[in-house]
Amino acid sequence: MILSDATLRELIGSGRILLDPYDPELVQPASVDVRLGKEFRVMRNSRLTHIDPFEPQDKLMDTVNVPEGEPFVLHPGEFALGHTAEVVGCPDDIVGVVNGKSSLGRLGIQVHATAGFIDPGFKGTVVLELSNVSNLPILLHPGMKVAQLVFQRLDRPAERPYGHPDLKSKYQNQQGAVASKYNLNSL
User: Fold this and answer.
1) What is the DSSP letter of 180?
2) Of the candidates 111, 93, 97, the residue with the CA atom closest to the CA atom of residue 162
3) Which of 4, 73, 97, 103 is the S-S candidate for 150 at Cβ 3.0 to 4.6 Å?
4) Is 129 labeled as catalytic in the residue annotation?
C-alpha cells in the first residue's frame, strides 16, 4: 500500500521515516519531494577503455563539488551520479521508491537507471543516477526539487533489513554521491 500525505507527515513527524532536513512543504499527496545535493561524480571517459564491475572504481569517476549558487551542467548523453540533499531512512517495515519529477523528465532528465529502490532499514543520502537524454545541456541547481520518494508498507517487517550483518550492506550511512562498490561482491 502506498502511503498518503497524512500518513507520511505522521511517520516523518514521529521519526519512523527519516527525512533530514525535513520541510513539510515537500509532502505531496502520495510522495515526498527531495532536493538535489552539491556533490556529483562524473565519468572519466576520455582516459579509460572499459569498466570492469569487479575492479575498484577509484579511477572511473571524478568528484565535482558545486560551489554555492552555481549549477552543475549535465550535457546531452552524459551520465553522472548525484545525491539527495536529505538523509533518508526507512524502518524495517517500509520501503521507498525513487521517481523522477515529471517536469524534469519532460526536459530530458532521468534520475535513476536501476537503483530506484530504498530497502527497509536503509539510512543515508540517496544516490541519483542522472542522465540527460535531451539534445541540449541541462543546468542542475543544488537545492532544486529533483525527485520524489514514494513509501510503501511491507506485509510484515523484514527479517534482515538493510544493514543487517548477514547482508554486507555496502551503502549503509552513505553521504554524498557514492560510487559503485560492486567490486566488493563475489562471482
Assistant:
1) P
2) 93
3) 97
4) yes
